[in-house]
């Protein structure tokens, strides 16, 4: 029987590649490696710069293990603040829609925290849709492939209590400033928000009123610098805006509420 993998040796390889949390990552890779060959391949991929979450095939998000495949946007820890805000606004049985859902992490986290929600999710990226279907199946979620609202069943119009839309909001000119693991390993359509970062958001906001139930809420994540512009966009679209920050999570969320 071969000797057990050496955490110190694996960590040293990762550290040389620039991994800041080399020991923690080494333990995760060792735990996930079914064979020495699997482990060697995982270490090679991680040392080459592939996101740890893609190498493992999962990430932890608000207490859930979320499946992520290569190329799919990895949910950020700061997005847990958006989920917290959504859960605070939710009622049992709420209709929840996760637009630009990626892996489906936001919708999954809300459904896990709120009783009996009716959960729907949509994304344009086929790889993301496959991940979301895997993550939402046990929660009874429905996942659709398509462009924003075009993907959703018409029967949801006017019924949505919580519309989560973690849309791409990085200005195109800032994409080159992103960390290499995001820039090189996540789909550009999950990151690029256009010239000012708000192209997709405007499309979501202008049509939100047709899908939200009376008093329903649209929640989006934003940079702190973009928040006022998003609030103004919500206001023009007939939604009452509120900007909320979390210093602990380094997160900003803008909530737009439909009239009753």
Automatic annotation (TrEMBL):
InterPro entries the UniProt entry points to: HemK-like, MeTrfrase_put, N5-glutamine_MTase, SAM-dependent_MTases_sf, Small_mtfrase_dom
Catalyzed reaction equations: L-glutaminyl-[peptide chain release factor] + S-adenosyl-L-methionine = N(5)-methyl-L-glutaminyl-[peptide chain release factor] + S-adenosyl-L-homocysteine + H(+)
Annotated ranges, domain Methyltransferase small: 66-168
UniProt keyword list: Methyltransferase, S-adenosyl-L-methionine, Transferase
4Fe-4S found in the keyword field: no
EC number: 2.1.1.297
Pfam assignment, any one: MTS
PANTHER family on file: HEMK METHYLTRANSFERASE (PTHR18895), MTRF1L RELEASE FACTOR GLUTAMINE METHYLTRANSFERASE (PTHR18895:SF74)
This protein's name: peptide chain release factor N(5)-glutamine methyltransferase
């Amino acid at each position: 029987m071969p000797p057990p993998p050496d955490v110190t040796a694996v960590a040293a390889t990762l550290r040389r590649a620039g991994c800041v949390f080399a020991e923690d990552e080494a333990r995760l890779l060792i735990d996930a490696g079914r064979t020495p060959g699997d482990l060697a391949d995982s270490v090679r991929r991680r040392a080459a710069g592939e996101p740890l979450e893609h190498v493992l095939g999962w990430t932890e998000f608000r207490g859930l293990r979320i499946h992520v495949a290569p190329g799919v946007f990895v949910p950020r820890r700061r997005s847990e603040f958006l989920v917290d805000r959504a859960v605070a606004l939710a009622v049992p049985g709420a209709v929840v829609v996760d637009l630009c859902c990626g892996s489906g992490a936001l919708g999954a986290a809300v459904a896990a925290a709120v009783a009996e929600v009716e959960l729907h999710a949509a994304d344009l990226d086929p790889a993301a849709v496959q991940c979301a279907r895997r993550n939402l199946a046990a929660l009874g979620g429905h996942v659709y492939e398509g462009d924003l609202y075009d993907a959703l069943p018409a029967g949801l119009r006017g019924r949505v209590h919580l519309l989560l839309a973690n849309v791409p909001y990085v200005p195109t000119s800032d994409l080159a400033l992103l960390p290499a693991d995001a820039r090189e390993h996540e789909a550009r359509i999950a990151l690029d928000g256009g010239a000012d970062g708000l192209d997709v958001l405007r499309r979501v906001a202008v049509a939100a009123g047709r899908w939200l139930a009376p008093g329903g809420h649209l929640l989006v994540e934003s940079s702190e610098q973009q928040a006022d512009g998003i609030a103004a966009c919500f206001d023009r679209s007939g939604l009452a805006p509120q900007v909320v920050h979390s210093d602990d999570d380094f997160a900003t969320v803008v909530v737009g509420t439909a009239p009753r």
